[in-house]
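Worked example (supplementary).
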Amino acid sequence: MVTSRDVARVAGVSQSTVSYVMSGRRSISAETRKRVLDAIEQLTYQPNAGARALASQRTQVIGLVVPFGPGADTAGLLPFIETIASCARAEDHDVLLVTTDEGAAGLTRLAGRALCDAIVLMDIEADDARIPVAAALNVPVILIGVPDDSAGLHCVDMDFALAGTVAVDEVAALGHDRVVLIGHAADVIERDINFVRRFQRGAAAAARRHGIGYSVVAPVPPGAAGARDAVERALDGGGRPGVVVPNSQAVAPVLHALVERGVVPSRDVSLIGLCTDAAAEATTPAVTNVSLEPRDVSRRAMEILFRLLDRDGEPPARLVELIPPRLTRRDTTPPVP
Amino acid sequence: MVTSRDVARVAGVSQSTVSYVMSGRRSISAETRKRVLDAIEQLTYQPNAGARALASQRTQVIGLVVPFGPGADTAGLLPFIETIASCARAEDHDVLLVTTDEGAAGLTRLAGRALCDAIVLMDIEADDARIPVAAALNVPVILIGVPDDSAGLHCVDMDFALAGTVAVDEVAALGHDRVVLIGHAADVIERDINFVRRFQRGAAAAARRHGIGYSVVAPVPPGAAGARDAVERALDGGGRPGVVVPNSQAVAPVLHALVERGVVPSRDVSLIGLCTDAAAEATTPAVTNVSLEPRDVSRRAMEILFRLLDRDGEPPARLVELIPPRLTRRDTTPPVP
DNA sequence: CTGTTAGCGCCTTCAG
DNA sequence: CTGAAGGCGCTAACAG
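After joint prediction of all chains, the assembly is encoded as:
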C-alpha cells in the first residue's frame, strides 16, 4: 500500500503538504503542487478511506435504505437506486446499501458506527417506526415518501394527489361520464403507505369537480384472476367508463383482462395507468400513463441531502416537497377531442 | 460520540480489554466480560468503522459493481442485488454500490482507497476490459458472468447452455417437429455478453440430438412491432412449432403477438421463455419458463467470495461454476404426454 | 508559503 | 487473565 508519506518522500515535501495539495485547503506554490501531483501520479497514490474518515469525521458515503425483502414494492426501485448512486458520485460520494428488513437497527448502525455521512430512507409508511429513530440520529436524513409525522425530517415524494387529479381530468376531458379506480392489493393497503389515500383523494376531488361518477374497486388480488374480477366489477356499471389503475403491478393484468373480454381500450373504455414510462411502453397496446418520475424525485432528494450536508448551503424551508407527475398519451385512450 | 475508552472507564477495565471482549480473540473472565458487555449496552456503544478499518485493515464492506447506466440489462437485476446484500449482512458485511459506467476506474478506486475487502463484478462481457484490472487488485474478486478469459478469477453464472438444452428437450418431449428461437435485440448481441451464444449452442445441440428442426429469428427489435414481426417469421414454416424466447424482455411481447394473431399457446404452439419466475407469472397466460435463478447464482458467488476472504477456507478448485436452470410448466405449453 | 505535531478510535504486540 | 503502549494513514491546528 502506498501512503501519503511515500508521496511526500518522492516529492521532497512534508506529509501534510501532500494532504493540503489534495484538499486545497491551503495555498500551495505552483511548483510544489506540481511536484506533489507528479509523485501522486507516479505512485498511483490513493488516499485510504478509513484513515481519512477517522481524521476528518467524513466518510464520503451516503447510506441508502431500500425496501428489499418480502412484501416490498420491488418493481420501480431500480431507477431510484440508479439516480441516487449517480447523484452521489457526482458529489464524490459512494453509496452504502442497507435493506429495510434491518428496520431501525440499520439506521442506528449506519450512524452509530459512522459508516456514512447522511442517509436516504425509502419506502416510508404513514406511521413508520423508523422516523423517530431517524430524526434522533446525528446525521442528516432525507425521506423518499411522506409519513404522517416526519418529525422535522425533509421529505420528497411524487405528488400522488396531483396524479389522481391529472388522471381524472383526462378521463373527464375524454368525455366519460364516470371513472373507476382499480386499486391496490390488500397487503399494500394494509401497510398503509399513504400514497393510496393521497391518490384517491385527488381523484375523487377531480371527479366531483367535473361532476362525473366515481367508484373504487379494491382490494385487487395480484395476478390475472384478481384483475379479471376487478374488471368485471368495473364494467358492471355499464356505459363507457374511464378506467384508472393506480397500481403498477395491476396495469398489465387489467389491460389483458379487458382485451380478453373483447373490450377495446380507447374505443370502448379509456385506460390510464399509474406507472413508470418503461412499464407503460412494455404492454401491448402501450398504456396511457401518469408517470411517477422516480428520477426527478431522487434527484431532488439528493439535492436537499447535500444541501443539508453543507453547513453553508441553507436547506429548503419547506419540509415536504412533492414532484408533479407527467401524463403521456398512448394507445389506450382516444385522442383528446 | 461514545468510544471504547468510555466503555472501558465505565466497566473499570482497560480499553484493550473492551476490544478483546468484542473480537473474542483472547479469553476473558466471565465477570470482566459481563461488566464490559453491560457498559456497552448502557452506553449503546458502537465501534467506529473508520478506526476499525484503519487498525485492522478490514472494512467489512463488499464492493458491488452493478450494470446501471445506458444499455444495461436492468430488468432482472434486483434479485441479484438483494441476495448479495442479504448474504453480505449474514456475514456481518455491508455492500457498497458502484456502477458499471465508472468502468475499470471504479475497481481501482474500491481497492486503492481500501473502501472494501472484496468485490463482486456483474455484467461481464466476453472480452471485458475490466478483467485484467480486476485480476491485478489486491482484493478478492468474484465475477457473475463468464468472460472468454477470466485471468484466474473465479466466476459464477447461470448455465445458459443447459437452459437451451432443457428448453429444447421440453419442446421435443411435447412432440413438436421443429423449434424456433426468437432471439435478442441487436445491441445485446453486439455487446457480446456470451450467454447468447451459450444458449444457442445448447439449444442447437439438443435439437440435433432429437432430430427436430431448428431455426433462429434474430435480431428482434424491442417493443410490440419487433415481436409481431418475429412471430410472423417464426410461424412462416407452418405446422405446430415450439417457440423458445431466450430474452426476458421479449417474452411478453411475443406472447401478445401470438394471441393477437389468434394463435393459442399450448394448443397451436408451445411457448417457453427464458426469464425469472416472477416475469413468467406476470403475463396472461402465465408462461412456461426456464428460470435463471439469480438468487442461486448470487448466493453461490458470495459463498465463494467469503471463502476467498478467509485465509483458511480453501476456495473451490473449479474457476467457473454454472448454476443449473429450472423448468417450470405453466399455461403456454400442454401437459407433457 | 511550508513543516511539525497532536490526535481521530481501534487493534494488537509486548509485558506482567 | 489483564494493562500499557505503539501505530494504522490522514487531517488540521499550531508554529514558523
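Two points are worth noting when inspecting this output. The first strand of chain A starts at residue 61 and ends at 66. Chain A has three domains: 4-56, 61-158+294-323, 160-292.
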